[in-house]
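The passage that follows is intended for readers who have already worked through the single-chain material. We present the inputs for a multi-component assembly, then the predicted structure in tokenized form, and finally a short commentary. You are encouraged to pause after the input and sketch how you expect the pieces to fit together before reading on.
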Amino acid sequence: MAESITTYDKNADAAEVSKKLRAARVKRENRQGLRKHLFLGIFALFMLYPLLWMLASSLKPENEIFGRLSIWPSEFIWSNYTEGWMRLQVSFTQFYSNSALVTILSVIGNLISCSFAAYAFARLTFSWSKFWFALMMMTLMIPYHVVLIPQYVMFLKLGWIDTYLPLVVPRFLASDAFFIFLMVQFFRQLPRELDEAASIDGCSPYKIYWAIIMPLSMPAMATAGIFSFIWVWEDFLAPLIYLNDIQNYTVPLALRLFVAEDSQSAYGQMFAMSILSLVPVLLFFVIFQKLIIKGIAMSGLK
Amino acid sequence: MRKFLAKNAPGYVFLSPWLIGFLFLALGPILVSLYLSFTKYDMIGDPRWVGLSQYEYMFTKDKRFWKSLQVTFTYVILAVPARLAFALMIAMVLDKGIRAIGIYRALYYLPSILGASIAIAILWRQIFNIDGVVNAFLSMFGIQGPNWIANPDTSLYTLVVLAMWQFGSPMLIFLAGLRGISPELYEAAEIDAASKPRQFFAITLPLLAPVIFFNIILQTIEAFKTFSSAFIISNGDGSPADSLLFFTIYLFNEAFKFFRMGYASALAWTLLVIIGAFTALSFFASKYWVHYENEKD
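Having made your guess, compare it with the prediction:
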């Protein structure tokens, strides 16, 4: 790429043409800018319409939800929220504390175990390290459904059904290899001289991990933490299989109960609880938007 | 010996959580499910060895297996290109000197981050209802829409639209890729009076090939794994008329509704082979159409 620039600069005429072209381009782009904003704005509205519709429907009287496009409720039914919260035989307070417990433990597990593995892969030399790394990358491809049945049989034999152990323990064993990959990418960018200097000063690898790598890796840890929070919070398949007692249900499982009783027409309440289930994710997105977007560009996470 | 330990110990200490997890949660289960796929196992008695007969039944007699393959492949073939085309189009509009790009980027990404949640699947069921928003919109143009979810001819398309709606992350990856293309190339093309479509096919597409390839692989594997939204929208069993019988849903029902763990394991291994074959094939094919810029050739 650098070559093409120098050949153009050598040629004064071409440089002049290039300048004019650039000026013309800026002008044209300003003119086009307005049109683009119009397009992008309308398109964004179109994209977000379903979400707005759900928010509006959560506040509408039952008979205004269907058969119309309009969003504004004729009166605001706030009781959809309070009644929806208590509608199932167990209140949503219980479901939210269950979800919070599972999510917090899982995020901690992911951060500890994945950063350990990533540190080993990115900074330490040991025999067979390339082999293990290749295997780790292969596990990224394996669908959860393939390991599901043997895992279920194993957890059943351990007596872990209807506890949170099958959801949390795997996270302490770095089962979400995506995060290892993300952290390896980040750790590799940190200057090696740091480790070398510290090691000459007598620092053990354990101390280097804790005192040098971790403090420098806060952006990567935050990105991994945010994504694992969102994924665990939205997780459906594993809770569906391992949790039977409604007392233990997480929020997504509880929401499914509303679908099961579709016919009893409590749509306003169903939408109200759906909206509430999105709030933690939305909050995270608004606060950490920049980190999330950078994280995707960096690693190609979903 | 001591030297060997000193060299390897820290690495294996840090690796140990992952190693244990790999053995007990990945490698072990994969091998066990291969074994189970040759047995009949209902979780009450012991697994009973039946050799290859379940695979034989699957490929020769099981109509639902073929139906689930058809549903999954139709979905992959429609949803992945649609999502990627959308993502690339929006990324290209966003790439060229737009102010406040951050806001649009965030707004367009929002559906992707919420999309995996059950709340969105619930929403989707209702907006494609017979008197849902989609039909209310169509009736403005005098069109009477079908009952999208309940009609087996249209139900799968609601999921394709859901996939298109979540074009956020490939969009971000395309955007990063477009940033890497030097503007001088387009200027040179304009000097040569190359038209916009020509510029797109001669500059943008070839230089973006590695990013496109990356996105195709990632999104296809994602699409094969589709589960939660299809589970909610199809009432958990692939209905109506098996039109939403995704492979993953068939597998789930065989395992956890009918407790045919052996047969479900055979399905699981078939899925693993399909995804593995797809990945290998695309890496092989990529040699012919993906050129990396820093490659010397």
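Commentary: Chain A touches chain B through 103 residues (CB under 8 Å). Residues 88-299 of chain A form a domain with the MetI-like fold fold (CATH 1.10.3720.10). How closely did your sketch match?
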